[in-house]
Design brief:
This protein is of the alpha+beta class and 134 residues long. 27% of the residues lie in helices and 37% in strands. The chain contains four helices and seven strands; from the N terminus they run αββββαββαβα. A seven-stranded antiparallel beta sheet has the order 2-1-5-6-7-4-3. Strand 3 and strand 4 form a beta hairpin. It is globular, with a radius of gyration of 14 Å.
């Protein structure tokens, strides 16, 4: 399934997303985070030691709900799965790009010895107000 124009616009904008993964016992874990897209995938940058990274390594199913910063009724829910994890310099550069987008400066928080990773999320189903309320 392809990402629609609304989802790409929201992911490229300065909008936060709630990322939902499944804990080992099946309970959902939700966390507000920065979000991006390459046009085909939703991109979430994290550290390999974080719970959401551990969760998707075990079970790649994930839901990302992008909330418009401007309009509460402008959103996109992407139900999908992690198809690739990208590390190294690409992930380090990506967190700086996200930081510039959201706060206007390079990423200033300490990065652990395992570095950063990008979760590349392929959509299985996309819901937006245009598809839900038509």
């Amino acid at each position: 399934m392809a990402l629609d124009e609304d989802t790409i616009r929201l992911a490229k904008g300065k909008n936060l997303a709630t990322v939902v993964t499944l804990m080992p016992n099946g309970q959902p874990q939700a966390l507000l985070t920065w979000v991006d897209t390459d046009g085909d995938h939703v991109l979430v940058n994290t550290e390999p030691v974080r719970q959401r990274a551990k969760n998707v390594a075990r079970d790649p199913r994930i839901t990302v709900l992008i909330h418009s910063a401007e309009n509460a009724w402008d959103w996109s829910e992407i139900r999908g799965h992690v198809v690739e994890t990208v590390g190294g310099q690409a992930a380090r550069d990506h967190i700086d790009e996200l930081s510039f987008k959201y706060v206007g400066a390079a990423y200033g928080r300490p990065i652990g010895p395992q570095g950063r990773i990008i979760l590349k999320i392929a959509p299985d189903k996309v819901n937006t107000p245009a598809t839900v309320y038509r």
